Amino acid sequence: MNEKLPLTENDVIDAVAAHLEGRDRRIEIVNRADKQGFDILARRKENSLAMEAKGGTSSKSGTNRY
Questions:
Q1: Cα distance between residue 24 and residue 10, in whole Å
Q2: Which sequence spans correspond to the domains of the chain?
Q3: Radius of gyration in angstroms for the set of CA atoms belonging to the chain, rounded to a whole number
Q4: In what order do the strands lie in the sheet with 26-30?
Q5: Which whole number is the average pLDDT over 30-58?
């Protein structure tokens, strides 16, 4: 992950997925900011986590928050 602030949604997705993998979760889905649906699906045994990430700025050039 880069050290720029504010973080983009993709930066948040990468950091959360890496954190969950380090806590014995299996990452099944990682959707980037340009995809619809939840961003991360992580599982451990019979438990599932589905997450939607939000960044502080946009990763898309041409937007107001880029």
A1: 22
A2: 9-51
A3: 13
A4: 26-30, 40-44, 47-51
A5: 88
